Amino acid sequence: MRANTIIMIILACVFGVLAVVLANIWLANQRNAMAQSDGVKRDTVVVAAVPLKFGDTLTADKLQEIAWPAGAVPTGAFKTTKDLLAGEGTKQALQTIGANEPVLATKITGPGQRATLSAVLGEGMKAVSIRVNDVLGVAGFVFPGDRVDVLLTRTVRDSSGVDKSFVDVLLQSMKVLAVDQVADESKDSPTVVKAVTLEASTKDAQKLTLAAGAGQLSLALRQAAANKGETTERVTLADLTGDTPEDVAKRQAELDKQAAAEAAAAEERKRANDRIDGLAQAVERVGSKLDDLSKVKPAPAVASAPQVEEVVKEVVKYVQPEPPARATIGVFRGIKLETYDVPRQK
Fold first, then answer.
1. In this structure, are strands 126-131 and 42-48 parallel, antiparallel, or unpaired?
2. Do residues 126 and 199 lie in contact, with contact meaning Cβ atoms separated by under 8 Å?
3. How far apart are CA 88 and CA 102, in angstroms?
4. DSSP label at 113?
5. Which segments of 96-146 are extended strands (E)?
6. Helix, strand, or coil here: 104?
7. Predicted model pTM
8. What pLDDT is stored for residue 57 in this prediction?
9. Closest to 137 in 3D by CA, of 206, 216, 208
10. Sign of the four-CA dihedral 204, 208, 211, 213
11. Rounded to whole angstroms, how far apart are CA atoms 217 and 52?
12. What is the pLDDT of residues 6-38, one digit of tens each?
């Protein structure tokens, strides 16, 4: 037999013995743990025998008692079904309770109470409803039991007459009691709602009521475990574009100027169109009159009597002028000319 084979057999035997030893040690520990648990004091706790929803009436067939470690009984639990159902009137579930989940006093109504929002409210808290839409209500993904922040968007006019818009975080970590008229926390399908009911203190309820008329309210859904508040600051249009308020005012003035120019141009076009319409109507009236005149038949022509025209003949007669009565005679005497005025002889 080869040396390698002998070594492999020895190693297999060693590992086999080691596995048996470890298994015996684990079984001994399990027996000790079971022996110790038998010495722990136990108590009973009432749990749901079937899943319960908001508004379900509690009856003995929907509950059961199970053993529970005495030192780990939840606060508000009931030891017996009789204790849970004690009192006049029935009790109802205020939230979803799973099968074998302990039924606590905070999850059910008192004797004779109905499963309403008033039974869900904490000590000194109020229920306030705000109006939302498909966008402001986080597209219907807010359910009863969620935590939300309430945002307020406002537009105010400063001393210079410029409108400024901004958003503030009004309230943080507000518990949603109901969406529309549904307060069942087991609801898990998104639905577009028109109103959300929040749990708020008296002062916060006043803020919500005042803010509803001062601007537009929006909801921001928080992480399920994020119940602590955080530092917030106001967000303005300058934070969106990086512009200063003067830049925003200047741009707004340019927009207003452009809008006024467009309005003036539109008014001028309207007046031109009115003039064109007036000319078109005048041309139409002239055309209609011409059409009426073309339809009138001309009166027959009447021959007038011949008129006698007077013929004038022009006679030209030449007359010999008479000679003058006196005549001028010149006589040279040497080199000197002398003139004499003498009567003319006939």
1. unpaired
2. yes
3. 22
4. -
5. 126-131
6. strand
7. 0.44
8. 84
9. 216
10. negative
11. 34
12. 788 888 888 888 888 888 888 887 776 665 555
Tell me the two tokens of residue 302.
Answer: 């009447």
**DSSP track, 2-29:** -HHHHHHHHHHHHHHHHHHHHHHHHHHH
8 Å CB contact between 237 and 165:
yes
Name 197's bridge partners: 129, 178
The residues, ordered by sequence, that sit 6+ positions from 232 with a Cβ below 8 Å of its Cβ are: 168, 169, 172
CATH of domain 42-115: 3.90.1210.10
CB-side neighbour CA atoms (13 Å) of 117: 21
User: H-helix or E-strand containing 294?
Assistant: helix 245-294
How far apart CA 237 and CA 249 sit, in angstroms, is 11
The amino acid present at 140, given as its one-letter code, is G
Identify any residues that bridge with 92 across adjacent strands, giving them in sequence order.
57
The whole-angstrom separation of Cα 217 and Cα 175 is 16
In the numeric block, which tokens belong to residue 280?
């078109």
DSSP code string of 34-79: HHHHTTS-EEEEEEESS-B-TTPBP-GGGEEEEEEEGGGPPTTB-S
Nearest of 111, 115, 48 to residue 78 by alpha carbon: 48
- Decide: 191 and 213 in contact? Cβ < 8 Å: no
* Dist. CA 160–CA 256, nearest whole Å: 15
DSSP-derived 3-state class of residue 130: strand
Distance CA 107, CA 91 (A): 10
Backbone angles phi and psi of 130, in degrees to 5: -125, 150
Strand partners, 64: 47
- 3-class SS of residue 342: strand
178 residue type, one letter: A
CA dist., res. 239 & res. 157, Å (int) = 18
Two structure tokens written together for 19: 């596995």
Which of 181-185, 215-219, 228-232 shows the lowest per-residue confidence on average (mean pLDDT)?
A: 181-185
Look at the block and give the residue holding tokens 């498909």: 134
Structure-derived torsion over alpha carbons of residues 15, 21, 25, 31, reported in degrees to the nearest 10: 120
